Amino acid sequence: MGAPPWTPTRSFIERISAYPENIEAESTMTYTRTQMPTGMGTSTPVPTTVLGGGQMRPGSATIVLHQSMVKLPESP
Question: Interior CA angle at 60 toward 56 and 64, to 5°?
Fold first, then answer.
């Protein structure tokens, strides 16, 4: 198994809130890319999209990730 796509030393959980029917979690995640995407030479412009469409500029990007986990009903 390879390294995670995020930087562990720059990613952390901000907070977790538990409620009777759900759990809310918020974390700060820093993703790092050190190589140009395959097929992109120096004459090809770097895409302006940082995280969208599976593309990311060389360097790093930090995002705040919010996850909501809701209790499923007893009967589907």
Answer: 95
